[in-house]
Amino acid sequence: MSKPHILLARAVFPEVVDKLRAVAEVQTNPDDTVWTSAELIERLRGKQGVFTTGGDRIDAAVLRACPELRICANMAVGYNNFDIPAMTAAGVVATNAPDVLTETTADLGFALLMATARRLAESEHYLRAGLWTKWGYDMFAGSDVHGATLGILGMGRIGQAIARRGALGFGMQVIYHNRSRLGPDLEAQLSARYVSKAELLEQADHLILVLPYTAESHHAIGQAELSRMKPTATLINIARGGIVDDAALARALKERTIAAAGLDVFEEEPRVHPGLLEVPNVVLTPHIGSASLPTRKAMAHLAADNLVAFFTGQSLLTPLNPDPRTR
Ligand code: 8YV
CA 204 to CA 222: how far, in whole Å? Predict the structure, then answer.
């Protein structure tokens, strides 16, 4: 039987390419170019599988142009780059890469929270610029993390891992809002209290966003929400660009209606809203939430393992929609 054809939309670890080559003809993207939709379609025609990252969009137009496609494996837990209803209608399987990145992403969320609250980036730039000539009593005085109220919007796996860090490690009062409330046992285990979104905004000293990006969560934090937050509060986004209205946030930071923000994700990545680049009270990182080497390897292997399972007749590890092979 002839081997299936798989496209790797972006560059990935050589060992992962080798794993796929054992079961398929593989076309790689050695220059790691970010393809336009037309360029992706051109390369995907005639292929049965694709390995994607969060920036590679699989929508109805791609599916129409590539009728032989049967599986898309995302090297990301978020899958807002996939049009799942269109994929299901076309009989195309979608998989993501959950669990393996939970703790690493929660670590980055906490790192960003601490860097933001304690003004690490701002003070480091000051030192490097040679501006440090004497110590001052309120120099880079920020806000405390320990003992503060930690608000979590979105209480899935990563939100829960952040709650544990906050409650157990830093003695924080954890409040959260989510589409569905956790069960009482889990709430007790996490020491997390469910509140309305309005209460979350008003009570949090540090508000961290960990919810998926959907039509409903688009601009879940805009001017109205920012104006409900404490003037001393910090906002951390490690979820997805588009959940925060970046222009409104840049204004709030400039006018100091909130104290500071830590952002790992942006509305138009890799472009960052110029207003965010102008203000000192924001810590900016280039979407590195899951970027520890072991975790990036685990994510890539999980995406590849889903492709291998599909093409060798095994059950999928982390499917997002029904598998047409089992109907
Ligand atoms: C990825 C992420 O690195 O998993 C996710 O949803 O946002 C990141 O961990 C990014 O999407 C590239 O695939």
Answer: 16
Which residue matches tokens 């994607």?
52
Domain span holding position 62: 5-100+293-326
| Whether pLDDT at 135 is above 80 | yes
Pocket of ligand 1 contains residue 98 by CB under 6 Å? no
Report the nearest atom of ligand 1 relative to the CA of 265.
7
CATH code at 68?
A: 3.40.50.720
* CB of residue 306 inside a 6 A radius of ligand 1: no
Is the distance from the beta carbon of residue 289 to the nearest atom of ligand 1 less than 6 Å? yes
Pair (86, 109) in one structural domain: no
Is 64 within 8 Å of 41 (Cβ atoms)? no
Among 240, 273, 296, 301, the active-site one is 240
Q: Given the DSSP bridges, would you call strands 149-153 and 71-74 parallel, antiparallel or unpaired?
A: unpaired
Q: How many domains does the chain have?
A: 2
CA of 76 to the centre of ligand 1 (A): 4
**Ligand 1 centroid to 1 CA: how many Å?**
35
94-119 pLDDT tens trace: 999 999 999 999 999 999 999 999 99
Centre of ligand 1 from the C-alpha of residue 292, in Å: 12
Task: Give percent of the chain above pLDDT 70.
Answer: 99
Q: Are 179 and 96 part of one and the same domain?
A: no
Q: Is 240 a catalytic residue?
A: yes
The per-residue pLDDT of the chain, averaged, comes to 98
Same-domain check for residues 205 and 260? yes
- Name the pTM for this structure: 0.97
Task: Mark out the alpha helices in 45-118 (DSSP H runs).
Answer: 60-65, 84-89, 102-117
Distance CA 219, CA 160 (A): 22
Task: Assess whether 128 and 219 both reside in one domain.
Answer: yes
